[in-house]
Automatic annotation (TrEMBL):
It comes from Streptomyces cinerochromogenes. InterPro entries: Thioredoxin-like_sf (IPR036249), Thioredoxin_domain (IPR013766). SUPFAM superfamilies: Thioredoxin-like. Residues 48-180 form the Thioredoxin domain. This is TlpA family protein disulfide reductase.
Amino acid sequence: MAALASAVVLVGILCVLDLLLTIGVIKKLREYGPAGPAGAPGRGMTPLRPGEELPAFTAVAVDGAPVSRSSLPDEALIAFLSPSCEPCRAELPELVAYAAAEPGGRDRTLAVVVGEPGECEYFVRELSPVARVVVEPKGGPVCAALRVDAFPAALRVRSDRDRTVVTGHVVELAREASAR
Protein backbone atom coordinates (compact mmCIF):
# COMPACT_ATOMS: atom_id res chain seq x y z
CA MET A 1 0.00 0.00 0.00
CA ALA A 2 2.89 2.37 0.75
CA ALA A 3 4.28 1.74 -2.74
CA LEU A 4 0.94 2.70 -4.31
CA ALA A 5 0.75 5.92 -2.26
CA SER A 6 4.33 6.78 -3.25
CA ALA A 7 3.52 6.19 -6.92
CA VAL A 8 0.44 8.45 -6.74
CA VAL A 9 2.48 11.22 -5.07
CA LEU A 10 5.21 10.86 -7.70
CA VAL A 11 2.68 11.06 -10.57
CA GLY A 12 1.10 14.13 -8.93
CA ILE A 13 4.49 15.86 -8.66
CA LEU A 14 5.28 15.04 -12.30
CA CYS A 15 1.89 16.45 -13.40
CA VAL A 16 2.50 19.72 -11.52
CA LEU A 17 6.01 19.96 -13.00
CA ASP A 18 4.60 19.34 -16.50
CA LEU A 19 1.97 22.04 -15.95
CA LEU A 20 4.61 24.56 -14.85
CA LEU A 21 6.79 23.80 -17.87
CA THR A 22 3.80 24.13 -20.22
CA ILE A 23 2.92 27.52 -18.74
CA GLY A 24 6.54 28.63 -19.23
CA VAL A 25 6.52 27.55 -22.86
CA ILE A 26 3.23 29.36 -23.50
CA LYS A 27 4.65 32.56 -21.97
CA LYS A 28 7.73 32.34 -24.21
CA LEU A 29 5.61 31.70 -27.30
CA ARG A 30 3.53 34.76 -26.53
CA GLU A 31 6.67 36.82 -26.01
CA TYR A 32 8.49 35.64 -29.12
CA GLY A 33 5.64 34.56 -31.39
CA PRO A 34 6.25 33.60 -35.01
CA ALA A 35 7.99 36.89 -35.86
CA GLY A 36 10.62 36.89 -33.10
CA PRO A 37 11.00 38.90 -29.91
CA ALA A 38 8.74 41.88 -29.25
CA GLY A 39 10.05 44.86 -31.16
CA ALA A 40 11.54 42.76 -33.95
CA PRO A 41 10.75 43.84 -37.52
CA GLY A 42 7.41 42.53 -38.65
CA ARG A 43 6.20 41.85 -35.11
CA GLY A 44 2.52 42.50 -34.80
CA MET A 45 1.82 43.06 -38.51
CA THR A 46 -1.77 42.34 -39.42
CA PRO A 47 -2.00 41.08 -43.01
CA LEU A 48 -4.19 42.96 -45.46
CA ARG A 49 -7.59 41.35 -45.80
CA PRO A 50 -10.07 41.27 -48.67
CA GLY A 51 -11.95 44.57 -48.89
CA GLU A 52 -9.15 46.67 -47.38
CA GLU A 53 -7.66 49.54 -49.34
CA LEU A 54 -4.17 48.89 -50.66
CA PRO A 55 -1.78 51.32 -48.91
CA ALA A 56 0.35 53.64 -51.02
CA PHE A 57 3.86 52.42 -51.83
CA THR A 58 6.66 53.26 -54.22
CA ALA A 59 9.60 51.21 -55.41
CA VAL A 60 11.88 50.81 -58.37
CA ALA A 61 11.83 47.59 -60.38
CA VAL A 62 15.09 45.89 -61.34
CA ASP A 63 14.65 47.27 -64.88
CA GLY A 64 14.59 50.83 -63.46
CA ALA A 65 10.85 51.41 -63.92
CA PRO A 66 9.00 53.05 -61.03
CA VAL A 67 6.34 50.91 -59.35
CA SER A 68 3.56 52.27 -57.16
CA ARG A 69 0.01 51.63 -56.10
CA SER A 70 -1.27 53.87 -58.89
CA SER A 71 0.76 51.99 -61.54
CA LEU A 72 -1.00 48.67 -60.89
CA PRO A 73 -3.45 47.59 -63.59
CA ASP A 74 -6.85 46.05 -62.90
CA GLU A 75 -6.71 42.67 -61.12
CA ALA A 76 -2.95 42.94 -60.54
CA LEU A 77 -1.20 40.15 -58.63
CA ILE A 78 1.50 41.12 -56.13
CA ALA A 79 3.61 38.11 -55.11
CA PHE A 80 6.16 38.14 -52.28
CA LEU A 81 9.00 35.61 -52.31
CA SER A 82 12.32 35.08 -50.58
CA PRO A 83 15.24 32.95 -51.79
CA SER A 84 15.78 31.76 -48.20
CA CYS A 85 12.24 30.31 -48.14
CA GLU A 86 11.95 26.66 -49.24
CA PRO A 87 8.23 26.92 -50.18
CA CYS A 88 9.08 30.00 -52.28
CA ARG A 89 11.69 28.04 -54.24
CA ALA A 90 9.21 25.19 -54.70
CA GLU A 91 6.42 27.53 -55.89
CA LEU A 92 8.60 29.66 -58.18
CA PRO A 93 7.92 27.57 -61.34
CA GLU A 94 4.18 27.66 -60.59
CA LEU A 95 4.29 31.45 -60.15
CA VAL A 96 6.25 31.87 -63.40
CA ALA A 97 3.71 29.73 -65.30
CA TYR A 98 0.81 31.56 -63.68
CA ALA A 99 2.24 35.02 -64.49
CA ALA A 100 3.03 33.96 -68.07
CA ALA A 101 -0.62 32.97 -68.54
CA GLU A 102 -1.98 36.24 -67.08
CA PRO A 103 -3.78 38.34 -69.68
CA GLY A 104 -2.14 41.73 -69.98
CA GLY A 105 1.43 40.49 -69.89
CA ARG A 106 4.16 41.13 -67.37
CA ASP A 107 2.71 44.45 -66.21
CA ARG A 108 -0.14 42.58 -64.51
CA THR A 109 2.17 40.79 -62.01
CA LEU A 110 4.48 42.46 -59.51
CA ALA A 111 6.99 40.13 -57.84
CA VAL A 112 8.68 41.42 -54.70
CA VAL A 113 11.79 39.36 -53.98
CA VAL A 114 13.02 39.85 -50.43
CA GLY A 115 16.69 39.27 -49.68
CA GLU A 116 20.18 40.45 -50.52
CA PRO A 117 20.62 41.34 -54.22
CA GLY A 118 23.18 38.55 -54.83
CA GLU A 119 20.97 35.81 -53.43
CA CYS A 120 17.95 37.06 -55.41
CA GLU A 121 19.56 36.75 -58.86
CA TYR A 122 17.96 33.39 -59.73
CA PHE A 123 14.47 34.62 -58.77
CA VAL A 124 14.98 37.84 -60.74
CA ARG A 125 16.18 35.94 -63.81
CA GLU A 126 13.18 33.55 -63.69
CA LEU A 127 10.54 36.21 -62.96
CA SER A 128 11.70 39.14 -65.12
CA PRO A 129 10.25 37.82 -68.41
CA VAL A 130 6.77 37.42 -66.87
CA ALA A 131 6.56 40.07 -64.10
CA ARG A 132 7.84 43.41 -62.94
CA VAL A 133 10.37 42.53 -60.22
CA VAL A 134 11.36 44.56 -57.17
CA VAL A 135 14.22 43.40 -54.94
CA GLU A 136 14.26 44.70 -51.38
CA PRO A 137 15.71 43.74 -48.01
CA LYS A 138 13.57 42.16 -45.30
CA GLY A 139 11.23 44.81 -43.91
CA GLY A 140 11.69 46.87 -47.09
CA PRO A 141 9.27 49.59 -48.18
CA VAL A 142 6.83 47.45 -50.20
CA CYS A 143 6.61 44.68 -47.59
CA ALA A 144 6.21 47.25 -44.80
CA ALA A 145 3.52 49.22 -46.65
CA LEU A 146 1.58 46.09 -47.59
CA ARG A 147 2.13 44.44 -44.17
CA VAL A 148 3.82 41.30 -45.46
CA ASP A 149 6.24 39.49 -43.17
CA ALA A 150 5.72 35.85 -44.20
CA PHE A 151 6.64 34.17 -47.46
CA PRO A 152 5.37 33.14 -49.95
CA ALA A 153 2.44 35.53 -49.98
CA ALA A 154 0.34 37.16 -52.66
CA LEU A 155 -2.36 39.79 -53.00
CA ARG A 156 -4.82 40.22 -55.85
CA VAL A 157 -5.77 43.89 -56.19
CA ARG A 158 -8.79 45.36 -57.94
CA SER A 159 -7.96 48.60 -59.72
CA ASP A 160 -10.90 50.70 -58.61
CA ARG A 161 -10.52 54.20 -57.22
CA ASP A 162 -9.05 52.97 -53.90
CA ARG A 163 -7.17 49.86 -55.12
CA THR A 164 -9.01 47.27 -53.02
CA VAL A 165 -7.46 43.98 -51.96
CA VAL A 166 -9.59 41.22 -53.48
CA THR A 167 -7.78 38.07 -52.37
CA GLY A 168 -6.12 37.69 -49.01
CA HIS A 169 -2.58 37.48 -47.73
CA VAL A 170 -1.46 34.02 -48.83
CA VAL A 171 -2.78 32.83 -52.17
CA GLU A 172 -2.46 29.36 -53.59
CA LEU A 173 -1.84 30.18 -57.23
CA ALA A 174 -3.24 26.91 -58.59
CA ARG A 175 -6.51 27.43 -56.72
CA GLU A 176 -6.80 31.02 -57.95
CA ALA A 177 -6.00 29.99 -61.54
CA SER A 178 -8.81 27.43 -61.50
CA ALA A 179 -11.23 30.12 -60.26
CA ARG A 180 -10.55 32.26 -63.36
